[in-house]
Amino acid sequence: MSTPRTVLVTGGNRGIGRAIAEEFVAQGHRVAVTLRSGEGPAGTLSVIADVTNPESLDAAFVTIEEKLGAVEVLVANAGITRDTLLMRMTDEEFETVIDTNLTGSFRVLKRATKGMIKARFGRVIFIGSVVGLLGSAGQVNYSASKSALVGMARSITRELGARGVTANVVAPGFIDTEMTAELSDELQAQYKKNIPAGRFAQPSEVAKVVAWLAGDDAAYISGAVIPVDGGLGMGH
Asked: Which CATH number fits domain 6-222: 1.10.150.320, 3.30.710.10, 3.30.450.90, 3.40.50.720?
């Protein structure tokens, strides 16, 4: 059992984010989730915030710090997709994805690291994607936003590594969530053919890796990309 920490998961109301928040609650941590609407899982502090809005994030942090203490573990998970082929992709479709997935992660990171530097302890975990390094047709915006998190994590590692702060990227492949459930059976079968494990992952399988990275046993891992993709992205 790792030391109980104050954990923040952005976008913690559904899919992978929700599973991550549930795993941290199950392990006895103090967990806050930010979301744009709805409720986080049982046992979490739900705070309405939008990662594209610095004021709303600042207000969220004030609430979390008052109720749970300074954030010690940040899981930057909030993300969106606007998939379309390059020739049809508008500037707006590119910029919106970058603003949420990349700049949004930067905004939350900047605010969270203040307390981490002071405490000389911090765990930053970015939720990337297998397509960040593998690439994906129709996802120039999304894959660019996710691969950029690797550079961010590695720069933080060099900048804050001596202060007890680690920064890593967890890169999930295909996960059984509402998003993949919308794919046709035909398409799902096609994707599974490319995955050596022959199946999609459960959200909990990603959550357990994230929780381990945040724990006491992973103190010497930083600047790493940890794939949770059944072998799909090997060599990338």
From this structure: 3.40.50.720
